[in-house]
Amino acid sequence: MLRFVVGAEDLLRTRFALSPVFELHHLIRALASPHRQGVPEAWLARLRPRFAPLRADPAVDAVLALHMPGSGATFFSPPPQALGQTIEDDLAALRAAPPAAVRAEIDFYLRRRDITGAARTVLTGPDVVDRLADLLAAAWAALLADDWPRLRLLCERDVVHRVGELGRAGWAAALAGLHPKVRWRDGGIDLLVRARRETGLDGAGLLLVPSVFVWPEIAVFADEPWPKAIVYPARGVGTLLEHGPPEAPPQLAALLGRSRALLLVTLADPASTSQLARALGMATGAVGDHLAVLHRARLVERARSGRSVLYRRTPLGDALAG
Question: For residues 83 and 178, what is the distance between their CA atoms, to the nearest angstrom?
Fold first, then answer.
């Protein structure tokens, strides 16, 4: 068991962020492996034709080689800095990785894994960082760019929920339901993972990263260059992966119109106008107009959260959507 010891300063400095590149690495491994890594077969079947041209690039084998059960090279999965993290941010951080640190991590895996042929050539080449970054950029465009807006919405909604629980009832409530392998106990966080040690957060706080493709497991970062971090499945991710995005029921669409029906179905959890627009591929102004109609009909309510206005269904909206 790994245990994070939490001090008073850590409670103030804990934050949330997203890591698009972490999602991409996990998806690449799922597509390249005979094991699904928790990703449903329906998702993999949809993406395999897009992955096939990429698979021929030896840089894919290089990416796969820099991972072992319970560990992975950190230079090409840099720690996220914000909730609004983008794949462009991640790839820029990758390209800026210190060459000495990159070489040290690559050498670590070269010594411990039987890496031969074209993959070894990629990993020992002077342009290894550019080769890996170019491969990840192409993989993002082919595999995740289309789905990311609604996956990001799912993760952002999880953050809204956790922050609300943290403010309402403290750490124990915020961590409850995070994952069966995570629990708050006696001023610290117990993590049921392979590592066996206790480490303090040392006033730097904890980084919490909601994820889609880590489901149904967690990932824990306890070593540099990452801050102490837990990557955990976002709420509702199992339903999304197994059943796909919400759709407007025909009867509800006939009553309200398809766009308003889809918004009402989507608003089981809070979301802002801009989040809904990104996730559903609609114009922000159109979403705002539809939400105004739903609000006047008392099917949704709104509340300010920081600089954003969040909408969610009212009990009347729940009844109608159901």
Answer: 18
- Looking only at Cα atoms, what is the longest distance across the chain? 65
Residues near 239 by Cβ (< 8 Å), separated by ≥ 6?
none
Spans of all domains in the chain? 2-17+150-240, 20-147, 246-321
Are 75 and 102 in contact by the 8 Å Cβ rule? The answer is yes
Q: What is the pLDDT along the chain (322 residues), one digit of tens a residue?
A: 888 988 888 878 888 999 999 999 999 999 998 776 678 888 888 999 999 999 999 999 999 999 887 778 888 888 898 888 999 999 999 999 999 999 999 999 999 888 889 999 999 999 999 999 999 999 999 999 988 988 898 898 888 888 877 777 777 777 777 888 898 888 888 888 877 788 888 888 889 999 998 888 898 888 777 788 999 999 878 767 666 667 788 888 888 888 898 888 888 888 888 888 887 878 888 888 889 999 999 998 888 776 778 888 898 988 888 8
Cα–Cα separations (whole angstroms), residue 2 to 10, 110, 231, 254: 17, 27, 14, 53
Pairing of strands 219-221, 197-200: unpaired
Question: What is the fold, at CATH topology level, of the domain defined by 246-321?
Answer: Arc Repressor Mutant, subunit A (1.10.10)
Whether 90 and 21 have beta carbons less than 8 Å apart is answered as: yes
Q: Cβ atoms within 10 A of the Cβ of 164, count?
A: 14
Q: Is residue 171 within 8 Å of residue 4, measured between CB atoms?
A: no
In this structure, how many other beta carbons lie within 10 angstroms of the beta carbon of residue 6? 20
